[in-house]
Amino acid sequence: MKELIEICFWICIFIVVYSYVGYGFLLFLLVKIKRAFGSQRSIPDISKYPEVTHVIAAYNEEDCIRQKIENSLNIDYPADKLKVLIVTDGSTDETMNIIKSYPEVQHYHEDSRNGKIAAVNRVIRFIKSPVIVFSDANTTLNNDAIKNIARHFNDSEVGLVAGEKRVLSKDADGAAASGEGFYWKYESKLKQWDSELHSVVGAAGELFAVRTNLFDPVDENIIIEDFYISLKIAMNGHRVVYEPDAYAMESGSASVKEELKRKIRIAAGGIQAIVKLAPLLNIFRYGMLSFQYISHRVLRWTLAPLALPLIFITNFYLARYGGQLYQLIFALQLVFYLFSTIGWILQNNNLKFKMFFIPYYFTMMNYAVYRGFLRYVNGTQSAVWDKAKRAQA
């Protein structure tokens, strides 16, 4: 009995550590080896600028849409090569009136609200440029973002370019913004190494670009369409690359409640994607892409959250009957969850000392997977959703 519990404990420890830390170390080593053998790809020079359509889906964005339009129109890219297209559906605030004050912006509207991907599907047929750049209405792009993205499409093998998401944080941010900011810094580094090794496994919807002829209309029930689109393109043999010098900036979530809402939706969408992209689990067919996908994504949405309570329960038993090592590990677990609890208590306090917010964000993120799984199973997570409120910049 004790031996079986020990085996279960160490397997669960391996799953969690590998999912969140071990894969990062392994990825770094594999990239170092690849560099040592001189097999790095060079990024093509932007000798010829492709025509680009910058697509922005907006719903009730009156607080930020003017800033977004100004940012998009003033970005450093040849004016005759860049079109800005905004698609809206169901907006009930001043978003449409603000957009109409910019005649240089193409605008498509529908009164009924059917969600972001339905809106995008609706306007794709009007796009004639070879490249589409997607970004969210509540983000600001750096001045060279589209230039830095567009240069990759001079490589005919590249089908999609993922930009970087940057969460703007302040010293006095609460748990949501602090945890999200730390998480995305780590995620950005993993994406960069993933790209260098083989392929990015999931673009962030805040900023990515795709060859127009590779964009297939997406099922309007898909919850996280950015993730699904990028993996489908990778599965079809096209390169999905990461460009850290093209970034979309936004504030962190206004509160943990808002961030939890966002994480639950992502988790439900992740489970949905795993089901719909089931062939990608076949490592004998997709090789390195499957390895990256399972290591970076699938484990975080499946086995890792399941392993966490099992680690605690089996460790409790082993701490009583298994010796000092297990007692030490159990004590460390108690400290971790104590810090997480303190982070929960202080979640809305604007503290400069962030030590408690990281454990709390980690715990909340894994809790969200359980909630997301239930929503997916019950069919209660709609692809049309109310976006999380963002903290004031």
Outline the structure in words.
With 393 residues, the protein is of the alpha/beta class. The chain has a domain at 1-40 and 156-386. Helix content is 51%, strand content 14%. The chain has 13 helices and eight strands. It has helices spanning 2-36, 65-73, 95-100, 116-123, 145-150, 175-197, 225-235, 256-276, 283-286, 288-301, 303-321, 324-345, 357-378, and strands at residues 52-58, 82-89, 106-110, 131-135, 140-141, 158-168, 207-211, 239-251. It has an eight-stranded mixed beta sheet with strand order 3-2-1-4-7-6-8-5, sandwiched between helices. β1, α2 (65-73) and β2 (82-89) form a beta-alpha-beta unit. The chain is globular. The model has no long low-confidence stretch (mean pLDDT 89).
Gross morphology is globular
Please write the string of helix (H) and strand (E) elements: HEHEHEHEEHEHEHEHHHHHH
Q: Summarize the amount of helix as a percent range.
A: 40-55%
Based on helices, strands and strand pairing, what is the structural class? alpha/beta
Biggest β-sheet description: 8 strands, mixed
**What value does the Rg take, in angstroms?**
22 Å
Strand order of the largest sheet: 3-2-1-4-7-6-8-5
Which segments are poorly predicted (pLDDT under 50) over 5 or more consecutive residues?
none
The beta-strand count equals: 8
Ends apart, CA distance between termini:
55 Å
Give average pLDDT, whole number: 89
Strand share of the residues? Answer: 5-15%
Number of helices: 13
In short:
With 393 residues, the protein is α/β, with parallel strands linked by helices.
